[in-house]
Amino acid sequence: GVADIMIATQVRHAKLWLAGDARNWELAAYELELLKEGLEDIVKYFPVYKDMPVGQMIEATAMAPIAEVEAAVKAKDRAKFAGAFDKLTAACNTCHQSSNRPFIVIQRPTGSAFPNQSFAPKK
């Protein structure tokens, strides 16, 4: 359901940051695409969840910041990536607050929860 997709989205969000922070643009593009697909699945399959129009909320809050992150990744611009990522994170939190889930607060990862994966770009 929605919760399972959101858990996967949180993982993708963290991996997106770790990849972009390491300037691994190929991995960042991959994680962003998976994150976007998960949100698109919610819009398609769960447009209303617990009487909340989550599909509309996602489209209204998250899609523009995702496009900004996408542009920064394509440009391979670390500074623009960080700013766009922060806007995406703020959009996630806005959506959580609007859907009566203010206790779910997303932030930039402060470390990696994935010790078995290197986020450094391939040389």
Features:
123 residues
- Average pLDDT confidence is 97
Task: Give the beta-strand count.
Answer: 0
Q: What is the number of helices?
A: 5
Order of SSEs:
HHHHH
Spans of 5+ residues with little confidence (pLDDT < 50)?
Answer: none
Q: Looking at the structure, what is the overall shape?
A: globular
The major beta sheet can be summarized as: none
Give the strand content.
Answer: under 5%
Task: Find the structural class using helix and strand composition.
Answer: mainly alpha
Q: What gap, in angstroms, lies between the N and C termini?
A: 39 Å
Helix content: 55-70%
> What is the radius of gyration computed over CA atoms, rounded to a whole number of angstroms?
14 Å
What does it look like?
- The structure is a single chain.
- With 123 residues, the protein is mainly α.
- Helices cover 67% and strands 0% of the residues.
- It is built from 5 helices and no strands.
- Helix 1 (2-21) runs antiparallel to helix 2, helix 1 runs antiparallel to helix 5 (78-98) and helix 3 runs antiparallel to helix 5.
- The model has no long low-confidence stretch (mean pLDDT 97).
In short:
The protein is an all-alpha fold. The chain has 5 helices and no strands.
SSE order and pairing:
Layout (H helix, E strand, L loop, with lengths): L1 H20 L3 H21 L8 H8 L1 H13 L2 H21 L25
